[in-house]
């Protein structure tokens, strides 16, 4: 379980994340929703350990212990060393996790088949399209079978088939006990995949809602929830 306790993060005088607290359970898909500049990406970078909070604390199962070995992070802008092929990059990352070669080989083959990766995986990544890079980044982020998966805009650069693969994989990972955290502007995607939805704006937490009980809260769907809550508060 990941827990944010009164977490704040400033850039200059602006609070990008303002005293946010929440818990993310094992085996759930937890979605951050909010307009541009709401603080979603900053929250995810804090969760991934790429930023440190100015105030508050971030815990794993009640402890501040290092948890990056259990984490996979997929940013909205994929990065691969341009001189490396996709295979070389993935194997490089896997070795950082101290995986054995037979383990890497097995996971690599399984994930490449899942993402329908072709012979281009052995070409220099400088020749890749955005969608190819995104598939490689997904594979390298999942190669060590992480228990926490953080995905910023999961469909960016992916074609419909790639998007479908990612959706199925997120659901599968959650069913297998992983905590899946995603940020998206797609209200339809949030409604389709989420177990819980966290609304934020201007760095503040507006509310956390059970995605399976939206109608019980008095809303037709996630779209109505989003626009009513954001307009009521701001």
Automatic annotation (TrEMBL):
GO terms for molecular function: ATP binding; ATP hydrolysis activity. Pfam families: ABC_tran. PROSITE patterns: ABC_TRANSPORTER_1, ABC_TRANSPORTER_2. Keywords: ATP-binding, Nucleotide-binding, Transport. Residues 2-227 form the ABC transporter domain. The keyword Nucleotide-binding applies. The keyword ATP-binding applies. It comes from the Bacteria. This is ABC transporter ATP-binding protein. It comes from candidate division WOR-3 bacterium.
């Amino acid at each position: 379980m990941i827990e944010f306790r009164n977490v704040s993060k400033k850039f200059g005088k602006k609070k990008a994340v303002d005293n946010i607290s929440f818990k993310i359970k094992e085996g759930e898909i937890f979605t951050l929703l909010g307009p541009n500049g709401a603080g979603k990406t900053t929250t995810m970078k804090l969760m991934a350990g790429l930023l440190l909070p100015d105030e508050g604390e971030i815990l794993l199962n009640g402890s501040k212990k290092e948890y990056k070995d259990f984490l996979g992070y997929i940013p909205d802008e994929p990065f691969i060393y341009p001189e490396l092929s996709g295979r070389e990059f993935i194997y490089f990352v896997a070795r950082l996790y101290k995986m054995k070669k037979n383990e890497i080989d097995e996971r690599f083959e399984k994930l490449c088949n899942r993402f329908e990766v072709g012979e281009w995986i052995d070409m220099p990544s400088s020749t890749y399209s955005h969608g190819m890079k995104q598939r490689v980044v997904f594979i390298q982020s999942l190669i060590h079978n992480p228990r926490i998966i953080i995905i910023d805009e999961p469909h960016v650069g992916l074609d419909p088939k790639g998007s479908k693969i990612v959706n199925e994989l997120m659901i599968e990972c959650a069913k297998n006990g992983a905590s899946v955290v995603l940020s998206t502007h797609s209200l339809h995607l949030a409604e389709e995949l989420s177990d819980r939805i966290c609304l934020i704006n201007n760095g503040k937490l507006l509310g956390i809602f059970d995605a399976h009980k939206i109608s019980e809260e008095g809303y037709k769907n996630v779209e109505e929830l989003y626009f009513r809550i954001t307009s009521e508060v701001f």
